[in-house]
Write a structure and sequence with these properties.
Blueprint (H helix, E strand, L loop, with lengths): L5 E7 L2 E8 L4 E5 L10 H7 L4 E5 L17 H14 L5 E6 L1 H12 L4 E7 L10 H18 L1 H9 L19 H16 L4 H6 L4 E6 L6 H13 L3 E4 L5 H4 L1 H21 L1
Parallel strand pairs: 3-4, 3-5, 5-6, 6-7, 7-8
Antiparallel strand pairs: 1-2, 2-4
Helix pairs in contact: 2-3, 4-5, 4-6
Protein name: AB hydrolase-1 domain-containing protein
InterPro entries: AB_hydrolase_1, AB_hydrolase_fold, AB_hydrolase_sf
């Protein structure tokens, strides 16, 4: 379908959350990661809105969803923001798709509001403390924070981007750039939390929450891609290797879409068989 969403705002905990939605049918909520903006999901929203109501948003302190004073990231607050948007749309539950730290926020939402989860798909959530080489990656994260404090945003971001394989592959379109203030907020207030925080996946397994995880084929052995292996072990859930890099859903949407629908179908069949 043509992308022609309805844009609106819901106020939650001191923030006007800017969100937009399109389509009819079951709700899919697309949750941004560290880049903060919802525009990355516009192509997949257009592709799915013939069968689903699709919504995304700018996360608090990112893009249009600004606050008076920026604060340190709280994953539980991010989950409450997601709840506010779902409720504002008049739904009691939603399918969730979260990418990168958006996957962490999706896990947190499922932990805090399990009754509101229809299905959850997490795409490359960077739960680094689950990895066999967690110690080395954690200390690399500390190094990046020191670089940011001593040498500035561009140097830290450059070293971080080196892990984002696939973005420069031949023929791959560029992703939508976040507003300039987003990277600053990410490094000031979000990176340390996102890099170390892991929601209680064991509780999600106990709750039998319908979850699937994905990793992009272009990401090769990146830590956030490998983390999906450990997530799937804990959750006992389906895991798919899908087209694209860390934002493949945005720039290789046509190739990505069948895998997204395959995962939804697998989760629906798994739930029906229980």
């Amino acid at each position: 379908m043509e992308f022609n969403p309805t844009k609106t705002i819901v106020h939650n905990e001191g923030c006007d959350l800017h969100y937009w939605y399109q389509g009819k049918g079951p709700l899919i909520t697309f949750i941004p990661g560290g880049n903060g903006h919802g525009r990355q999901f516009n192509p997949i929203i257009a592709a799915l809105s013939d069968k689903f109501t699709c919504v995304t948003f700018d996360r608090r302190q990112m893009s249009a969803s600004q606050v008076k004073v920026n604060k340190k990231l709280s994953p539980p607050q991010q989950a409450r923001d997601i709840r506010a948007i779902i409720k504002a749309l008049g739904f009691e539950k939603s399918i969730l798709f979260g990418s990168s730290s958006g996957g962490i926020f999706a896990f947190q939402f499922a932990h805090d509001f399990p009754e509101m989860v229809d299905h959850l798909i997490s795409h490359e959530a960077p739960t680094i403390t689950l990895l066999p080489d967690a110690s080395a990656i954690f200390e690399w994260g500390l190094h990046l924070m020191e670089v940011y404090e001593a040498r500035g945003l561009e140097q830290a971001a450059s070293e971080f981007r080196a892990k984002l394989t696939g973005y420069d592959d031949e023929g791959i379109p560029k992703t939508a750039s976040p507003e300039p203030e987003n990277p600053r907020n990410f490094w000031d207030n979000e990176f340390p939390v996102c890099f170390a925080y892991v929601p209680n996946l064991w509780r999600l397994a106990e709750n039998k929450t319908s979850i699937g995880v994905m990793r992009g084929v272009r990401c090769k052995d990146a830590f956030f891609a490998r983390a999906t292996e450990e997530q799937a072990k804990i959750l006992g859930c389906p895991r798919l290797v899908v087209p694209g890099h860390h934002q493949g859903f945005e720039v290789e949407t046509k190739e990505f879409l069948p895998y997204f629908l395959e995962m939804l179908d697998a989760l629906e069949k798994k739930r029906s068989s229980v």
